[in-house]
Amino acid sequence: MSVEVQPASPDQQLPAAPPSQLSRRRGRSNWLGFVVPPFLVFLAFLGLWYFVSYGLLTADRRFLVPPPHAVVQVAFLDTVNLAELLDALWLSTKVAMVGLGIAIVLGTALAILMSQARWIERSIWPYAVVLQCVPILAIVPVIGFWFEFGFRSRVIVCVIIALFPMIANTLFGLQSVDAGHHDLFTLHGASRLTRLRKLQFPAALPAVFVGLRTSAGLAVIGAIVGDFFFKQGEPGVGILIDLYRARLQTEQMFGALILASLLGVVAFWIFGYLSRLVVGGWHESAGGAASG
Amino acid sequence: MNVPAEPAVVPNGQAPTLAFAGVGKTFADGTVALSDVDLTVAPGEFVTIVGPSGCGKSTLLRIASGLTRLSGGSMRVNSGKVGYVFQDATLLPWRTVQGNVELLSELHKLPRADRRRRADEAIKLVGLSEFAGHRPRALSGGMRMRVSLARSLTLDPELFLFDEPFGALDELSRERLNDELQQLFVSQRFAALFVTHSVTEAVYLSTRVVVMSGRPGRIRADFEVPFDYPRLPQLRFEDRFSQIAGRVSRCLRGTDV
């Protein structure tokens, strides 16, 4: 079978279709191929859950892994229980959002500062690393001691946990501009601020979004973990989980776990979407690759 | 209309656009990149430097542009704006062609309407008007280099510095861009200092070809290329062209010591 190919005019390059269009076109035509496999896996997961619940556990120990329908019934369909869960979820969401917001602003500011001179970077870096490594369990009592056990303390714990990726990724992005581009700006007398605004910061965006995604996930974890360790104040998801555990109310505990995970997934998804929106047009990392 | 090639010494005594006198460059680690380089580029001259790898050609360009400081000797630049074209197109991937071409005018704080106008003209000159809204990733290597050229043109430079701009391109694109550059040279008549490895490219484009010796770099020879502009692609296959190219080549080989 022979195929005739018309050569494009040698100088003209067919403008590449924006890759997002390619995957959209693909998605529409194989909608089923797109949705069915994950759905089947989900069914398999449910099947496994039921198996563990009914197949592996005897009736008196079934509370360890309550079957899915029991979880839904007790945790989500009961209005009182649901209200309790949603209130706690909302509180944890607020903590995570405020914590993430502060972490973004602080992390970016520190990264910009550190990118200005090696000695600044070397001076601040150790503290950033300590932030990353210090065990939260050790800090929490101190923070509770200083800042009491309310919203503010939870936000502080959240910021501590979520800050490092913002600093590290933003700094990396700011520093990965190649010498040729820097030369170009030097040749035309760009000030430090101009260089930052027009060259370094846009160039850093792909890395910044990686940091954002990571920090968002950590902020959710931080909100819940902080809550869990504080054990006092208005209950967020962390306290509820601990409470249900103590009372052996495992259906509600599973319900809380599911909601907490969903919060993390939503955070992850939001920043993935933002990333594609902002950076997707020009950088391969943010879903710009036409790999469906 | 044939434009005669400018002679090396401008009879009316106009100041050279670029003049190196005894220029030397030693790097911090002790490498002597350049030693006692004397070179002049008169207004409207197209001078190409050929030389073995590492002979300091790029260093000379960087000194001319101000990116690197010379260690010895002196240099004079009599030019309003200087255009610099790197081997890599160095486009900003997040900007469109239009945005990239406007960049330099932005850095020089020109008013918006002015920036727009210059960019539009430059993009038209390099034949990329249809692609003004595209991002670099959608362009071929040759097209990106044209954007880089257009960008430099927006400042109306009197002196152009080219650092092996077509080195990364395939043969065909290279020849096509040689012709386009030549047309720009004829219409804008800037002074140019061009660095390349290709003797053919050097002889085809220039009014003068200068051969540089290996490290430490110094000027070995200076060849006039007396062909009129605009030069046609067939010129490359004519005897008079091969003669000069041959002499340059032999001189170049002789410096591989």
List the helices and strands and how they pair.
The complex is a heterodimer of chains A (292) and B (257).
Chain A: H1 19-29, H2 31-56, H3 68-77, H4 79-116, H5 118-133, H6 136-147, H7 151-175, H8 179-187, H9 192-230, H10 237-246, H11 250-279
Helix pairs in contact in A: 1-2, 3-4, 3-11, 4-5, 4-7, 4-9, 4-10, 4-11, 5-7, 6-7, 6-9, 7-9, 9-10, 9-11, 10-11
Chain B: E1 18-26, E2 32-41, E3 46-50, H1 57-65, E4 72-77, E5 82-85, H2 97-107, H3 112-125, H4 141-153, E6 159-163, H5 171-188, E7 191-196, H6 199-205, E8 208-212, E9 219-224, H7 239-254
Parallel strand pairs in B: 3-7, 3-8, 5-6, 6-7
Antiparallel strand pairs in B: 1-2, 1-4, 8-9
Helix pairs in contact in B: 2-3, 2-4, 3-4, 6-7
Name of the CATH superfamily of the largest domain in chain A:
MetI-like
- CATH class of the largest domain in chain A, named Mainly Alpha
**What's the overall average pLDDT of chain B, rounded?**
89
Under CATH, the topology of the largest domain in chain A is which?
Answer: MetI-like fold
Assign the CATH architecture of one domain in chain B. 3-Layer(aba) Sandwich
Strand content of chain A: under 5%
Total beta-strand segments of chain A: 0
Can you identify the CATH superfamily of one domain in chain B?
P-loop containing nucleotide triphosphate hydrolases
- Helicity level of chain A: over 70%
Low-confidence stretches of chain A: 288-292
Oligomer: heterodimer
State the CATH topology of one domain in chain B: Rossmann fold
Shape of chain A: flat
| Tally of separate helices of chain A | 11
Please tell me how large the radius of gyration of chain A is.
Answer: 25 Å
Q: How many domains comprise the coordinates of chain A?
A: 2
The shape of chain B is: globular
Order of helical and strand elements of chain A: HHHHHHHHHHH
